[in-house]
Write a structure and sequence with these properties.
This is MmcQ/YjbR family DNA-binding protein. The chain is 35% helix and 26% strand. The chain is of the alpha+beta class. It has one domain (3-108): Aspartate Aminotransferase, domain 1 (Alpha-Beta Complex), CATH 3.90.1150.30.
Length: 115
């Protein structure tokens, strides 16, 4: 999956915003909370949140590592050569979106037009 495909998928989810943080990372958020972060520099790498059980399983696969600074919150960094198919990337990113969305206060959900 390339950056444009990942970007198009993230922006297809309801109430998603994007912005550049740390000068070279494209961040996708819902209600002001990040659910996916992609490097703007080649080669493509991106991070997403997973549940604790999947974190242990995924973090030992080639091309998948605990995300720097976010690993304690169960984020995975997918680097070049990761084993995830496009469909699995979309599933993982959608799951990350749903996990972050589920933790938002009702006020944030309402402001995002999700209630």
């Amino acid at each position: 999956m390339d950056l444009e495909s990942l970007r198009a998928f993230c922006l297809s989810l309801p109430a998603v915003t994007e912005d550049v943080k740390w000068e070279h990372d494209l961040c996708f958020s819902i209600g002001g909370k990040m659910f996916c972060v992609a490097s703007l520099e080649a080669p493509l790498s991106f991070s997403f949140k997973v549940n604790p059980e999947d974190f242990q399983e995924l973090s030992v696969k080639p091309g998948l590592t605990p995300a720097p600074y976010l690993a304690r919150y169960h984020w995975i960094l997918a680097s070049e050569g990761h084993p995830l198919s496009k469909a699995e990337v979309e599933t993982r990113v959608r799951d990350s979106y749903e996990m972050i969305k589920s933790k938002l206060p009702k006020k944030a959900l309402k402001e995002a037009g999700l209630l």
